[in-house]
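Researcher: Sequence recovery benchmark, item below. Answer with residues only.
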């Protein structure tokens, strides 16, 4: 009897680690080999309070800053007052707000971290707007609550191909964390 090695449809293309980093960019990894990509981010912490993690698509190795991002978000969670269920979204933004703010504060920062993933579809296509959707979870250190976010985003300024994605924050650095990019067969 012989055994074959299991195969995976997920192919790791790149890994980046934050170390007091203002932004993390993945550029030049999109090829015709894959139509769908998955980004994973985990153990993400920052050096500020109520820092919002943002995402921008990239074209020709530069962030797209046009006010053409649209997104929706659905968060469910639990805080000291009880459970909550929120929905929201924005249009005509110059970035995608991954969350509505997450707090990693002082000595508690090693305990409260952001974890998540999202899928990006057809980044090289020139006949459709670019779209992603995914999920993230985090604990807030000040208010002692846990949130679970589901989100989607598109960029509707042009159907031009993308070259990458940038993760960044509004005012602080990512103190630590890991970001991974996978191609999906």
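Model:
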């Amino acid at each position: 009897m012989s055994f074959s090695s299991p195969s995976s449809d997920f192919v790791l293309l790149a890994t980046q680690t934050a170390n007091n980093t203002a932004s993390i960019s993945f550029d030049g990894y999109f090829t015709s080999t894959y139509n769908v990509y998955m980004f994973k981010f985990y153990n993400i912490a920052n050096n500020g309070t109520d820092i919002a993690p943002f995402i921008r698509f990239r074209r020709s190795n530069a962030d797209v800053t046009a006010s053409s991002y649209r997104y929706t978000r659905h968060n469910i969670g639990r805080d000291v007052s009880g459970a909550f269920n929120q929905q929201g979204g924005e249009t005509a933004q110059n970035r995608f707000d991954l969350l509505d703010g997450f707090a990693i504060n002082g000595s508690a920062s090693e305990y409260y971290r952001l974890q998540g993933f999202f899928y990006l579809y057809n980044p090289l296509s020139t006949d459709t707007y670019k779209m992603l959707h995914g999920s993230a979870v985090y604990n807030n250190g000040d208010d002692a609550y846990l949130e679970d976010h589901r989100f989607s985003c598109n960029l509707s300024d042009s159907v031009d191909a993308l070259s990458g994605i940038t993760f960044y924050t509004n005012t602080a650095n990512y103190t630590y964390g890991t970001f991974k990019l996978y191609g999906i067969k």
